[in-house]
Amino acid sequence: MSDSLTAQAPAAERIKPILALLHAEYPDARCALNHRNALELLVATILSAQCTDERVNKVTPALFEKYPDARAFAEADRTELEEMIRSTGFYRNKAKSVQEACQRIVQEFDGEVPSNMDDLLKLSGVARKTANVVLGVAYQIADGIVVDTHVKRLANRLGLTTQSDPEKIERDLMSITPRDEWIDLAHLLIFHGRRVCDARKPNCAGCVINHLCPSSQA
Questions:
Q1: Domain end residue (candidates: 88, 119, 138)
Q2: DSSP letter assigned to residue 86
Q3: Do residues 128 and 105 make contact, with C-beta atoms less than 8 angstroms apart?
Q4: Largest Cα–Cα distance in the chain?
Q5: HEC profile for 151-194?
Q6: Domain range spanning residue 185?
Q7: Is residue 191's pLDDT more than 60?
Q8: Which has the closest alpha carbon to 43: 147, 144, 133?
Q9: Which of 4, 31, 94, 214 pairs with 12 at a CA distance of 20 to 30 A?
């Protein structure tokens, strides 16, 4: 099916073959943040802002051992928490967000990370991207599509959107992507962005979807 389509075909027609080819190329596509539960994923995602997943994964084992639940984070000494996450950057703001989010989780949600968008967005440091990560990865709930820097870059290069605002990009992607692919789409685009479609020098010659990509034809 994908061979009969070109990069000039409408995005709604190209999205399914794009997904099929990326699924075949990256059968192991998943969230790169190490976690064992929704709380650990929430904290790790907050820490990942302006930071690599690899760096976050180096910090979180000791962090989660010291603070095993939301109450432990809520009652943590802020200075100690900051020091543990210092290497992730913007550590004061991140420590504040993590602690205030966990305080609200304890006070309003019985210590459990909420499993709906509205409640997640009430938490400090949580916007739609983080909420979608938690819902999709921890709870397998497809409420939206994660739009990080890789998804934003590839969605534009692939002509799936012309928007630059993450929420508008998300709406465009949701409108053309089958709902049962919303969670996987982000994982696939992130994997492809890291391995092939680099921000500075995309490897179009080695790309399995280059015949469906307007940017590779330019």
A1: 138
A2: G
A3: no
A4: 60
A5: HHHHHHHCCCCCCCCHHHHHHHHHHHCCHHHHHHHHHHHHHHHH
A6: 2-30+144-217
A7: yes
A8: 133
A9: 31
Please state, in angstroms and rounded to a whole number, the distance separating the CA atoms of residues 142 and 18.
19
Residues 8 and 46 in one domain: no
Marked catalytic residue, from 58, 69, 118, 148? 148
For residues 110 and 157, membership in a common domain is answered with no
Give the number of other Cβ atoms within 10 Å of residue 199's Cβ: 12
Q: Does the annotation mark 148 as catalytic?
A: yes
Total domains in the chain come to: 2
Q: Among this protein's residues, is 129 annotated catalytic?
A: yes
Residue carrying structure tokens 């290497």: 87
Residue 47's CATH number: 1.10.340.30
Q: Select which of 94, 129, 143, 184 is catalytic.
A: 129
Q: Is the dihedral of CA 93, 98, 101, 106 positive or negative?
A: negative
Q: What confidence tens digit (pLDDT) does each residue in 24-76 have?
A: 999 999 999 999 999 999 999 999 999 999 999 999 999 999 999 999 999 99
The 8-class DSSP code of residue 202 comes to -
CATH number at residue 184: 1.10.1670.10
Residues 202/44, Cβ–Cβ less than 8 Å = no
Alpha helix stretches (DSSP H) within the chain: 11-25, 38-47, 53-66, 70-74, 78-85, 91-108, 117-120, 128-133, 149-157, 166-176, 182-195, 214-217
